[in-house]
Amino acid sequence: LRDEAAQRRLPQTLAAMPFVSQFHHHTRGGFLKNLFQLYVLLYLAMSASTAFAIESHCEKEEQVIFNCKLANSTKIVSVCEVDSEPIAEHYLQYKFGALGRVELAFPKKGLVEKDQFLFLRIHSGESSYLRYELTFGIGRNTYSIYWEDAPKFDGAWNYQHQVVTNGIEVTSAKRKPINLRCDQFAVQRFDSAYSLYNVKNGY
Predict the structure, then answer these.
(1) How sure is the predictor about 32, in pLDDT bands with cuts at 50, 70 and 90?
(2) What are the CA-CA distances from residue 66 to residues 9, 35, 62, 193, 196 (Å)?
(3) CB under 8 Å to 108, separation ≥6 — which residues?
(4) For residues 130 and 30, which has the higher predicted lDDT (pLDDT)?
(5) Which residues, including other chains, have CB under 8 Å from residue 148's CB and lie 6 or more apart?
(6) SS3 202
(7) Which of 28, 42, 56, 86 is 20 to 30 Å from the Cα of 72, by its Cα?
(8) CB of 81 within 8 A of CB of 92?
(9) Could you give the CA distance from residue 51 to residue 162 in angstroms, rounded to a whole number?
(10) In angstroms, rounded to a whole number, what is the distance separating the alpha carbons of residues 92 and 79?
């Protein structure tokens, strides 16, 4: 109800703003049309901020290091930083599955070992290229979660246009690698858990 009341008051609120008053002065008869367009844009922006907030598998007391929903899927990939004070454990945990139903977790509680995750950071200041990779193994499969920010390539490198891609690659000795891309909106905070990785720096 509060949201509906705020939406009803929005045109009056906007009209009272100095930049809108000035806009009215310059546009005269087109003011209502432009005000309506501005209202629609603000409404879409508020709706988008809610729609793109992807929930994770991380518990309330855990820090989200990486989180995304896979493209064309209901599955969510999360990497959580676990700091269990009663057990005195501080480690990363990978969780995969639909929201509220974790199908795969690594490592399982009580089976934490040192250097279970390998972290790679590749950076090139000259080309504005940055890539993070977090790699770990489960059985005979190797998982690599990646986040990449690179110039757009369209026959030639366009350094004015950066493209972000992220997802998880799964490799196995018995089959071709699988690359599962994330939707556009992903969260990554790899640098915040730097001390928990077996780190290898790139260039």
Answers:
(1) low
(2) 38, 39, 12, 11, 14
(3) none
(4) 130
(5) 130, 131, 132, 164, 165, 166
(6) coil
(7) 42
(8) yes
(9) 24
(10) 7
Residues 6+ apart with CB under 8 A from 117: 92, 134, 135, 136, 196, 197, 198
Distance from C-alpha of 42 to C-alpha of 120, rounded to nearest angstrom: 40
Closest by CA to 92, choosing from 55, 67, 123, 122, is 67
Give me the half-sphere count of Cα atoms (radius 13 Å) on the Cβ side of residue 41: 7
pLDDT value of residue 160 = 73
- What 124-130 contacts at long range (C-beta under 8 Å, 24+ apart), as own/partner pairs, is 124/203, 127/151, 127/157, 127/159, 128/159, 128/162
Lowest model confidence (mean pLDDT) among 37-41, 115-119, 189-193: 37-41
CA–CA separation, 90 and 5 (whole Å): 46
Dist CA 71 CA 137 (whole Å): 23
